[in-house]
């Protein structure tokens, strides 16, 4: 038996899984914390919805119908589909990632409280977190189910995947940042089953995702600055008024992370689709767009400036950065195989998170001019290949450079 095996099989009793009987009362309370995490976002959405309803003197909507819009917002934040009427051909899919991020934060806060409550419970460590996620998903489906009586009608089946992802992400975040016994059991369980190279790849992967969003931010700011006059003209033609203008710009700001993900996705070489408009690496194919001010930043139809065809080098360079960061904790004498595996895992994790964000960010209105907004499916192979290529090239270069020194 190796030293590592002896360490893994001699965990302190405080970290060993408990074989005590399952406490259904505490598991029910854990599910209740999950419900609280889901309801918190719904309560946050009620305030602006009711304020907008009360401030509109021409509104013919009842207060109960207006209240149902908060459930529609909850469904959209979790990437659910919302139909505008029973049997209508138009279905809206649009998850403003600011709201989705808030949902994850609220889920994490509730999960943290849940872990504190379960500090002295018996049974397997995963039962409490699993009950929490079930409570979150069930409460979310109930919230969206109540809004079915209103003017819009969420599709519960499409809400389920997003609710599961958000509940899991919030619970995972709480487990990673907690020192409670349940979290310690979870970390020990993971440490026994995930290789050291995988754990080393987590931080570089996170930095890679932040770098990816940073690339998108630079592109969005560049487009906003160079198309400021077009955006202003569209806003002037709409004349939304004070309250309408606040709602319009709040919605566009909530979608800012979506714009970052879409812009960064364009650098991979995958076309960016905005309904009938397609923005490729070298040209833009035009089409009709609705009068939303921020869409004035979309480049005009025709050829793009020279040099945009080199955009796919950006994710390759980002992959090289991820590879460089992943080798930071390895010794100089680590084998090339170990370095390549660590770098590839970091790049793979980065690609997985990027693709998850790309899926969450996609939007559309079925049967309309904006039937799909987001990157083409080519982003899946392109982002994986480009990040892995950059990471492995950086690994080979750094290994060769260090070999020359020694």
Automatic annotation (TrEMBL):
InterPro entries: DUF6350. Keywords: Membrane, Transmembrane, Transmembrane helix. It comes from the Bacteria. Residues 1-20 are annotated as: Disordered. The chain crosses the membrane at residues 30-55, 88-111, 132-150, 156-176, 209-229, 241-262, 274-298, 310-328, 340-360, 372-398. This is DUF6350 family protein. It comes from Flexivirga alba. The lineage of its organism: Bacteria, Bacillati, Actinomycetota, Actinomycetes, Micrococcales.
């Amino acid at each position: 038996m190796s030293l590592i095996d002896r360490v893994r099989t001699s965990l302190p009793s405080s970290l060993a899984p408990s074989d005590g009987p399952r406490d259904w009362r505490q598991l029910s309370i854990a599910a209740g914390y999950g419900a609280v995490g889901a309801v918190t976002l719904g309560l946050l959405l009620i305030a602006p919805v009711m304020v907008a309803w009360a401030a509109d003197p021409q509104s013919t909507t009842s207060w109960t119908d207006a209240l149902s819009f908060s459930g529609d917002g909850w469904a959209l934040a979790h990437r659910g589909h919302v139909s505008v009427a029973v049997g209508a051909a138009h279905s809206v899919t649009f998850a403003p990632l600011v709201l989705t991020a808030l949902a994850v934060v609220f889920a994490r806060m509730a999960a943290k409280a849940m872990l504190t409550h379960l500090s002295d419970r018996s049974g397997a460590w995963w039962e409490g977190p699993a009950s929490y996620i079930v409570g979150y998903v069930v409460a979310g489906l109930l919230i969206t189910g109540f809004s079915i009586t209103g003017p819009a009608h969420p599709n519960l089946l499409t809400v389920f995947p997003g609710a599961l992802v958000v509940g899991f992400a919030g619970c995972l975040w709480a487990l990673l940042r907690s020192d409670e016994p349940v979290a310690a059991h979870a970390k020990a369980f993971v440490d026994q089953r995930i290789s050291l190279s995988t754990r080393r790849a987590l931080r570089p992967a996170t930095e890679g995702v932040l770098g990816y969003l940073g690339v998108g931010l630079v592109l969005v700011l560049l487009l906003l600055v160079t198309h400021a006059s077009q955006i202003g003209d569209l806003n002037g033609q709409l004349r939304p008024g004070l309250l309408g203008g606040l709602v319009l710009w709040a919605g566009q700001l909530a979608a800012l992370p979506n714009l970052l993900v879409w812009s960064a996705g364009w650098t991979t070489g995958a076309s960016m689709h905005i309904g009938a408009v397609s923005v490729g690496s070298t040209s833009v194919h035009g089409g009709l767009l609705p009068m939303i001010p921020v869409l004035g930043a979309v480049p005009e139809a025709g050829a793009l400036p020279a040099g945009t065809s080199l955009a796919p080098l950006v994710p390759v360079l980002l992959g090289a950065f991820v590879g460089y960061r992943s080798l930071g904790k390895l010794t100089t004498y680590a084998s090339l195989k170990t370095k390549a595996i660590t770098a590839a895992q970091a790049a793979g994790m980065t690609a997985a998170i990027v693709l998850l964000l790309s899926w969450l960010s996609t939007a559309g209105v079925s049967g309309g001019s904006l039937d799909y907004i987001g990157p083409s499916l080519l982003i899946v192979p392109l982002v994986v290949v480009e990040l892995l290529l950059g990471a492995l090239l950086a690994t080979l270069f750094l290994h060769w450079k260090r070999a020359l020194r020694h």
